[in-house]
Amino acid sequence: MIRVENLVTSYNGRRILNNVNLEVQAGETMVILGGSGTGKSTLLRHIIRLELPTSGHVYIKNQDICHMPEDRFNLLRAKIGMLFQSAALFNSMTVEENVALPLRELTRLEDSTIRIMTRIKLDLVGLGGFENYMPSELSGGMKKRAGLARALAMDPEILLFDEPSAGLDPITAAGIDNLILKLHKAFHMTIVVVTHEMASAFTIADRITVMDQGEVIATGTPEEIRASKHPKVQQFLNRTPVDETLDAQAYLRSLTQS
Amino acid sequence: MTAVLALIGRSTLGLARYSQGLYRLTRDTAYWTFVAPFKGRGFKGQAAIHQMVMAGVNSIPIVGTISVFVGIILALQGAYAMRNIGAGPYYIALLVGVAMTRELGPLITAIIVAGRSGSAFAAEIGTMKVSEEIDALEAMGLNSIKYLVVPKYLALLVMMPCLTILSDAAGILGGGIFQMYQLDQTFLMFLAATRDTLVMRDIWTGLIKSLVFGLIIAKVGCYEGFAVRGGAEGVGKATTSSVVISIFLVIAADVVFTALFYYTS
């Protein structure tokens, strides 16, 4: 369903993604795991084509989206839903208006039908009754659920999550994990989740890809990842901090040079 | 010396990048405003009307008030200057009428709108940028220029000439108030003198300028919003930059158009 081939991206001369290869099968839940700054969110942004790579390809349903005209890709985008880290709800609209937006703009459905579909999506994520709330009146967990309802509005085949548990307490985060599992079981969507929360990753994943410094260092089932002999994978799984060996001369140079 | 040259080089490159960005935004906005609706790609009419109310209707009190003050100031200064040459009240009506319609009406309106609406555009779009709302729009396959820029652009293209007409009228009224109370003229005498001195060219040159100023303010405000980096501080910087750059470009355009209208009259 999704295939990333030799993806390379740089910002201001700094390489963020370095020859990333990834394959996500239809109907599976792939978790991209890694520490902060390893390029996970950047990879996700390339999959939805919010950014274009320096080189490499991203294929969705065997179509190379990197070189596709914008109009054609927007037809594909209608089948992809994304939940952003901050939920990215439109603050000037109510929850119902947020969820209804893609339906109003991308379909010719009647208003009454859109209203019903919106309420179904909100009920699905446990936000029934909150249609007229503004995003500023919602808690963090509720915002994520509203963002997820909006991502589900067009009945997508692919769902992307960028750090769904970020900023949430463990109980609320577990609620989001259960929701992801429920959606996967009910709709058999292809789901890609970017996270650094191990508990979430091992709960929801069919397969896990571990990234470090812009590279994929391991891919496999949760059991395979647990059993991986790669030192950085084990360091991440065991929450072992990086052993920083101080080079005294280099440190002095960095302090004194202008 | 090298540092100075490097600064000049960096500034030139920065200016070139800025100009290129503004050009691209203008080109895309023109497409989504004048071409896309006729290709069945939709048009955000209600959003445009909402922006017209926010940028135009809500500016009426401040534009009107400031323009009355400007009219009074013009008449006062004009009366002072013309006292020495023995010029009568007729020439004050000429001064106020021509200055307001050809110059100060569009310029004062543009400065107020740049400070009020241009900064609001930058702040709104910049805030949406940092909170990933623009990414969310794009991820849904919705073009951010169609949804965010076109309504604002249309709002200023329509409301700037309207506000300019209001400013012209308010400024002339201000001049008339001075004439009534200081020069023993009736308001009707002042209006008659203004009507006799003004020609249509005075009015439409001012309106053409107001259209161009509106375009500049909308473009710069939206561009600064899209260019925001770095959170709340970036939004603050963009808001300030949009006002400063808008006013600079408005006055630069004013020089060009004033010269053009002068040499073609």
Structure description:
The complex is a heterodimer of chains A (258) and B (265). Chain A has 10 helices and 10 strands. With 258 residues, chain A is an alpha/beta fold. A 6-stranded mixed beta sheet of chain A has the order 6-7-8-3-9-10, sandwiched between helices. Chain A has a 4-stranded antiparallel beta sheet with strand order 2-1-4-5, covered by helices on one side. In chain A, a hairpin with a 2-residue loop joins strand 9 (207-212) and strand 10. Chain A is globular, with a radius of gyration of 20 Å. The mean pLDDT of chain A is 88. Chain B is an all-alpha fold and 265 residues long. Chain B has one domain (46-264). Chain B is 86% helix and 0% strand. Chain B contains 9 helices and no strands. The chains are: A alpha/beta (258), B mainly alpha (265). At the A-B interface, helix 2 and helix 3 of A face helix 5 of B.
Strand content of chain A: 15-25%
In what order do the strands lie side by side in the largest sheet of chain A? Answer: 6-7-8-3-9-10
- CA distance, first residue to last residue of chain A: 51 Å
Arithmetic mean pLDDT of chain A? 88
Largest sheet composition of chain B: none
Structural class call of chain A reads alpha/beta
- Give the fraction of residues assigned to helices of chain A: 25-40%
N to C succession of SSEs of chain A: EEEHEEHEHHHEHEHEEHHH
Question: What is the straight-line distance between the termini of chain B?
Answer: 47 Å
Gyration radius over CA of chain A: 20 Å
In terms of quaternary structure, the protein is: heterodimer
